[in-house]
Specification:
By secondary structure, the chain is of the alpha/beta class. 23% of the residues lie in helices and 34% in strands.
Length: 191
Amino acid sequence: MGESARKVDVAIVGGGMAGASLALMLSHFCPQLSVALLEQRALPDAAASIQLPSFDTRATAIAAGSLQLFAELGLWPALQTYSAPIDRIHVSDRGHAFGAALSTREGQGVNFEGILGAVIENAALGPILHSALTSTSTQLLAPAQVTDITMTSAGANLLWRSEDNSPDQALSCGLVVVADGVNSPFAASWE
C-alpha cells in the first residue's frame, strides 16, 4: 500500500442502521479514534424522499439499552416522535403450554423512561442517524464501493472507488467492521 493511502483506526463498511449507529457511538464515546464510514450509496439528507434500502417503510424494535445509547448521543428527542413504546413482551413456544412475559407494570426488565423498548420507523431513523453523523469527525465516504478487503497483521487494507469508472483508492485501518447487510459479499467470503 502506497504512502498516499488514508489511514484510520476503524473503517466501517456499510452506512445502514448498524454501521451508522456504530460510527456515532465511536465518535461520541471514543473521540480519540479516527473513524471512516464507507457506504455504497450516496447518503441522503433528511429531506430526501429516497433513503438507503435499510431505511425503508419497515419498523424496528429497539431495546431499552439501545434507546439509552441513542439518548446519550442526543438522538432520543428526535426519534421519540417516530416511535411507539414497548411496555409488554410475551415470548411463547408454539405447542407448549408455558411462555414468558415481561411487563413494565410488573417492574421486570430493563426500563428506559418506563418502557422496555420502542418500535421506531426505519424511514425516520436513517435521516436522523445520518444527520447526526455530519456533525462528528467521522470521515463519510459515500458513495464508496468497497472492491477489496485484505486482512493484515496490523488490521486491514481496503480498496474502494467513488464511481464506477473511477480508480480504486486505498484505506488502511486497525479494525474493519463489515456492516453492509445480510447479503454482504465480504461477510459471505469469510464464513
